[in-house]
């Protein structure tokens, strides 16, 4: 599992060969320095920059660009080297940004030789800096680790290199080599979007494709305005979007990666826009403060003119950033319009025509749609929220504001999961202690899609939960023994989804302990939870249930901005996956699911 590092955090490296992949919101120049135990470099020959020659064990890219790959072989660096620093600097060229604070945050990923991502780090919080020490690879007790630094220098690369021990002359000479970018790599080169921090209930990072899976996608632009094309030429039109144009071996995998690429592109485009707006507002504040600080311009026509000019500059920058954002959003909307109709049933909304031609699949899908996500800058641009299967964590539909609506969402989710699996390979069990969800559960009970009626009353709840707990124990014991999984008669070999309504009503201390056990251990052996609950109803248990709530992915029956992406931590508004009002698609599909299971059961006899 990839480690997403924050400032100052370290992580062990599994080997001594690693590739460092850099993506930024504008063209940047990478660099590497080799230092001693204190990080001090011995001289210019311990610094690698494009055009300055390489270093033992370091393969450098050439010239500024928005994306780079640096290959590092730590076995090949000199024995005296204890620290390897990875640098990023903005090139001093006309039209390029002069500070990272107006760009999308740089992102670095460390990748093992086999392609597995080891760790990643997004350098957030930058403002006036034009050079940064992003990562530090350091030797500790014979093993190598990586530390996320993100240390910035407003004085640029010369200040950074002087801080690492170079003389002012040597630092200036090395930095001077960056004033002329390589052909085709200037500040107007295609830029890659940011990938900053995390916030709120995070959309699980494991659900997004690896960087190589998203390769080839267009990049979100930085808040700077691109240069005008040469006189007499028209700007190149963006390529027409095509469904399934992402990497992948199957169409399903390509569509999955494309949807997550759209999610990432939208996240980064909004991050670049918000960064530009924040910068414009902070610059306006500084300029207005400067006007007030000078007695000669504090009042009078000169002061008013200075304030008007400052506000005009702020409005101009915001307008330029909005124009870039609108362009990127229009392209994303066009892509969404061609991708949505091409999605298979597990990825598609209930309103999609593909559900009208549903047939039982022969293989489980790689992912399922749990709803839609959007941001306030363009609420109508909704991205499917796809989550990989089998589910690695349970789901919790929060019923605090709308109990009936929460059950409706649970039914829609359970129906989607059931219909996305081959007949006989997935089963839904329901706990409804007081029978309060009878009406909402009608699509399941009337269709025959449930293999047994919902468990009611304390005895029914205890019996069902105990049976699933025993199943988990037996499967785990068989796996621990290294032999084939043998379940006794009466145990369903299919994956199980336990839908629990009105939790913790009907649960005693024993069944609550068992449910927590199912939440922790069940997903590994095919038992998954879907709770419909108001957390306040469990307040009498105090902190006992806190680990349970934290282990579940919280969803809501009405739009709510409680989810965050793994790149920049935007507060995304979640829309539940409900069928259109008056639609009978869910009951119809469940009847077809029940018929397919009966055919499957007859074939097993």
What this model shows, in words?
- The protein is of the alpha/beta class and 605 residues long.
- It has helices spanning 156-163, 168-176, 251-293, 301-339, 403-419, 442-447, 457-481, 509-521, 546-551, 585-604, and strands at 3-5, 10-12, 17-35, 47-48, 58-59, 65-73, 83-89, 107-111, 117-122, 131-140, 143-153, 201-202, 367-374, 383-388, 395-398, 426-431, 495-503, 527-533, 553-555, 560-564, 571-575.
- The strands form three sheets. Strands 1, 2, 3, 4, 5, 6, 7, 8, 9, 10 and 11 form an eleven-stranded mixed sheet that branches. It has a five-stranded mixed sheet with strand order 12-20-21-13-14. The protein has a five-stranded parallel sheet with strand order 16-17-18-15-19, with helices on both faces.
- Helix 3 packs antiparallel against helix 4 (301-339), helix 5 (403-419) packs across helix 10 (585-604) and helix 7 (457-481) runs parallel beside helix 8 (509-521).
- It is globular, with a radius of gyration of 28 Å.
Number of helices: 10
Q: Give the number of DSSP strands.
A: 21
Overall pLDDT level: 85
| Helical residues, percent | 25-40%
Radius of gyration of CA atoms, rounded to a whole number:
28 Å
Structural class: alpha/beta
Shape: globular
The proportion of strand residues reads: 15-25%
Main beta sheet strand tally, sense and closure? 11 strands, mixed
Unreliable spans are 180-199, 205-235
- Terminal-residue CA separation: 42 Å
């Amino acid at each position: 599992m990839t480690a997403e590092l924050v400032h100052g955090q370290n992580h062990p490296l599994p080997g001594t060969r690693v590739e460092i992949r850099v993506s930024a919101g504008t063209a940047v120049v990478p660099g590497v320095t080799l230092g001693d135990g204190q990080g001090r470099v011995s001289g210019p020959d311990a610094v690698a920059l494009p055009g300055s020659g390489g270093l033992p064990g370091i393969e450098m890219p050439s010239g500024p660009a928005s994306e780079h790959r640096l290959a590092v072989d730590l076995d090949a660096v000199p024995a005296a080297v204890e620290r390897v620093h990875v640098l990023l600097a903005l090139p001093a060229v006309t039209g390029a940004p002069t500070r990272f604070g107006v760009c999308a945050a740089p992102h670095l990923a460390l990748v093992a030789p086999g392609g597995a991502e080891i760790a990643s780090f997004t350098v957030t919080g930058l403002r006036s800096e034009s050079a940064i020490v992003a990562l530090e690879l350091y030797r500790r007790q014979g093993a190598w680790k990586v530390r996320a630094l993100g240390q910035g220098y407003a004085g640029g690369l010369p200040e950074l290199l002087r801080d690492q021990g170079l003389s002012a002359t040597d630092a200036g000479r090395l930095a001077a080599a960056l004033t002329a970018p390589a052909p085709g790599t200037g500040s107007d080169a295609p830029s890659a979007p940011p990938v900053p921090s995390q916030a709120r209930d995070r959309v699980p990072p494991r659900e997004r494709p690896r960087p190589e899976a998203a390769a080839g996608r267009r990049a979100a632009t930085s808040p700077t305005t691109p240069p005008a094309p040469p006189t007499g030429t028209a700007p190149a039109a963006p390529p027409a979007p095509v469904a399934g144009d992402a990497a992948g071996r199957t169409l399903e995998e390509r569509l999955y990666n494309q949807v997550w690429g759209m999610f990432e592109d939208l996240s980064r485009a909004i991050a670049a826009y918000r960064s530009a707006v924040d910068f414009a507002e902070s610059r306006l504040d500084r300029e207005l403060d400067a006007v007030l600080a000078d007695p000669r311009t504090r009042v009078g026509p000169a002061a008013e003119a200075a304030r008007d000019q400052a506000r005009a500059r702020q409005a101009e920058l915001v307008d330029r950033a909005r124009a870039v954002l609108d362009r990127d959003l229009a392209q994303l909307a066009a892509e969404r319009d061609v991708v949505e109709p091409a999605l298979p049933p597990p990825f598609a909304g209930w309103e999609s025509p593909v559900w009208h031609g549903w047939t039982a699949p022969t293989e489980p899908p790689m992912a399922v749609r749990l709803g839609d996500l959007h941001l306030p800058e363009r609420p109508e641009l909704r991205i499917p929220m796809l989550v990989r299967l089998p589910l690695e964590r349970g789901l919790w539909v929060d019923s605090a504001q709308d109990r009936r609506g929460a059950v409706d969402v649970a039914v829609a989710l359970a129906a989607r999961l059931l219909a996305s699996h081959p007949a006989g390979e997935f089963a839904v069990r329901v706990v409804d202690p007081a029978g309060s969800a009878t009406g909402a559960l009608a699509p399941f009970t009337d269709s025959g899609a449930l293999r047994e009626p919902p468990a009611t009353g304390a005895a029914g709840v205890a019996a069902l939960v105990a049976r699933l707990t025993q199943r988990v124990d037996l499967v785990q014991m068989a796996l621990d023994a290294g032999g084939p999984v043998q379940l006794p008669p009466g145990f369903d070999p299919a994956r199980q989804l336990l839908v629990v309504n009105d939790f913790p009503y009907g649960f005693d201390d024993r069944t609550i302990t068992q449910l927590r056990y199912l939440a922790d251990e069940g997903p590994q052996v095919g038992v998954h939870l879907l709770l419909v609950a108001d957390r306040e109803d469990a307040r009498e248990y105090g902190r006992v249930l806190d680990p349970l709530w934290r282990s579940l992915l919280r969803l809501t029956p009405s739009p709510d901005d409680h989810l965050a992406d793994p790149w920049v931590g935007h507060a995304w508004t979640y829309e539940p996956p409900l069928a259109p009002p008056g639609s009978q698609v869910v009951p119809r599909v469940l009847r077809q699911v029940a018929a397919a299971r009966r055919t499957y059961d007859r074939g097993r006899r």
